[in-house]
Amino acid sequence: MAQLFTPGADAIYRLVLLTGVACLAGVPIVAAGIVRSDYVTGVGIAPQQPVPFSHKHHSGELGIDCRYCHTTVEKEATAGLPPTHTCMTCHSQVWSGSDMLKPVRDSYASGEPLQWRRLNKLPSYVYYNHSVHVTKGIGCSTCHGEVTAMQMTYRANAFEMGFCLDCHRNPEKYVRTPDQVWNMTWSPPPNQATLGPQLVAQNHIRGGQRLMECGICHR
Amino acid sequence: MAGASLIPPGETLAGIGRAVTAVPIRHPLNRRWWIAFAGAMALLAVFAVALFWLLFEGVGVWGNNNAVVWALDIASYDWWIGAACGSLLVSATLLLLGAEWRGAINRVAETVALLCTCAAGLYPIIHLGRPWYFYWNLPYPNTFSLWPQFRSALVWDAVDIVSFLVVCVSLWYVGLLPDLAALRDRAFTEAMRQREARALTRGLAMMRARTYGLLASGWRGSAAHWQLWLQGYRTIALLGVMLVVCVQTGASVMFAGSVMPGWHDTILPVTFLVNAVFSGVGLTGAIVVLIRAVYGLDGLVTERHLGLIARLLLGLGCASLYCYATEFFSTALHGDPYERGVLARRVTGEHAAAFWTVLVCLLLPAQVFWSTRARRAPLAVAGVGILVAVGAYADHVMVLLVTLGQNFLPAAHEPFRETVWGIATFAGSVGLFLVLLLLFLRYLPAVSITETRRLALAAGARTGRETASDRPEPDPEAMEPGTPLWGISARFATEAELAAAAQAVASLTAARNGGDVHLDGHGPVPMPRVTRALGLEGRTIRPYALGGALLGGLGFYGMCVYASAYHYVFLIGGRPRFSWPSFVVPSFAFAMMSGVVAIHLALLVLNRLPRLNHPAFNIPGFLRASEDRFFLSVQAQGEGFEVERIERRLAGLPAGAGRPLEIRRIPR
Questions:
Q1: B628 Cβ neighbours under 8 A, 6+ residues apart
Q2: Arch. (CATH architecture) of B484-538+611-667
Q3: The complex's ipTM?
Q4: Which pTM value belongs to this model?
Q5: Between the CA atoms of B267, B273, B276 and B278, what dihedral angle is there, to the nearest 10 degrees?
Q6: Domains of chain B, residue spans
Q7: Of B145, B213, B571, which is closest to A166 when you measure between CB atoms?
Q8: For B623, which residue in chain A has the nearest alpha carbon?
Q9: What local confidence, expressed as pLDDT, does residue B4 receive?
Q10: Is A21 left (phi over 0), alpha (psi -120 to 50) or beta?
Q11: Cβ–Cβ < 8 Å for B107, B447
């Protein structure tokens, strides 16, 4: 009797089977990798802005406080984006003829705000409040990274739910003393293990189960 | 049951194979099949439209509202999975009990189980508000840093259905494997006939043979394969039975997890299981009768088979009646007022039609089988089977709607109304089932060839006489001097002769040159005597199954503990973080699935499969190894292989006690 298949068919058949099994394990892993990649999350990518504003220069080198521009960060849900007026407090005097700043002057003259491209976005069903985080001892850099080192501003962390929950599960690892909140190069001090729980108790932060409830962020 | 026989007198092994494989190979009744297929496709088109509208508009199109969150969708799901569980349980139980007559219905039962699971598996996905996020039900590495809530019975269901699908496919496919090989060989014979006749369809015929060949994965009926196959098949059946109990009782616990009245009677897990098996047997019985009538398989599905199905239906009908009566009496006598209210609304309320359908279709018709005449009537078996299936659907509707329809909040004043889209979705899922069933009937053997042959051999069927066509002319070019030798083959008419010859050659070669030969037997049925003669009976697949199940189950349990008790701290309903009993159910289901996967791997590795191309296929007339001939292969493995000596020994055996019909040298 003749063979129905050539000897090579075995190799192909087994290769297909093994490829199928490998895909079963491999495709989810690759997909998980892509979803977490900077390409998808936009972490570390600085988009073109109407004016090439440098946080490194203004905040890092010149030492302007965060709150000079983001005025409502301690009082309201949003940190606040400065109006053109704020820029012009200095730039009506400094670099007043610079070509680079022409869009700022135009905006000031016309009353039309500058159209910045937003970096940090949360879905509409997430209720985030800056003031409560800042006043309870969570510093800017925990979420926004070392902004004072950014020539052009980029997204430092992908604001996925896992990122938020990491801190909501263990706030004592991230909480700071009030004077450290604005420190953009903060890293946990050696005594964070004892200081953290102290600050958590002092600031009435109820970690674990309370901060893990859905309704804390999704109302 | 005496009198009627399961196998008609004069049936041969080859005849059984031809009767069954004729349906997929030559396919009689082409026109009727196409008409039925067109009808089923039309229903499937209804499904497509219903699904499109559902995705476009949302689950509101089914009429589901704030009180009745589960309606026809979950009733349909429960019904489909119930029928699947029932069919699987029947087939697996008969296999485990060694009921020799199961061959006529096990294939249909396993297929019904598989197709019902396919239809059922869609519902949990499409009834989600956003079906494209269905994978959120599964534990996968996600950026939310969330886990499925293993303390909820709803998640058990996601694990159950995935496990059930895997077990179902496995039982069906492993059982089908030798039959696929038989089909491959028949299709190959047909393809070669067409090639010689230079028929126009010869390319198609060869493609069909190759397709069956791929599906059969190089099964060549080796004694070693049969031994592990039998073990693997039975072990999958055992895992399947345990999974069925897990799935059905889990489904009832899902209801009991709520605070709604009418869902907490302690007999409910038993009722669910009984009704599931009942509907599964009903559906299987109806389809068996249909296939028997349409394809004229009266010889293989006899009146006695119908009688056995009827007895099963009668027994299950009584069990179902008992469950209902118990629930009724315990609620009426000592249920709380809300439970009694549900009972009253079931009988007289808005959806009372469901209750009366249950009574008329599910509980009463099976009682007709107290009569011997009814048990023998195919029409009665089919009719009662269909009625039972209808009644089981009404039961799911009743259990869901009557309880959910009475909400205790004034806001939920809108009553539930079945909508045309809810019904269309269910009708469409029936269409899906029918399309797949018709494709199965068209392309695969509807009756298990292997099981029927084993039964026939036990009943003393003949393996068919040696005819002139059995002796192909020796091909002069096949074994030219200098062609490398693979081994010697010998052909036999019975397993006993093969076993005797294997014994003789084994003792001969063991005495002379120990490990230089490799013996194997090939045949159309499992060959325990040959296995013993070859010294293979000690091999077992069960440790792999047990190891796989334990590994999978413990791994899943560990994941549940890690997720719920440690990583995903979350308060639901005041349940403790370490809710160990609720982790047992999904872990158990997953263990069954892991055991089955381990069996597949063990079958492939221990049997050295898949082997699409194998020197054994070079044996002249080997196509009949899947029909009615038994072959011994003596494979040369070293220098000490003495061809003439083995040939002399075989030829010298007494006729009827090991002398082969023919001895051949086989090239590599």
A1: B12, B13, B14, B17, B463, B464, B493, B524
A2: 2-Layer Sandwich (3.30)
A3: 0.83
A4: 0.90
A5: -80
A6: 276-386, 484-538+611-667, 549-606
A7: B145
A8: A1
A9: 46
A10: alpha
A11: yes
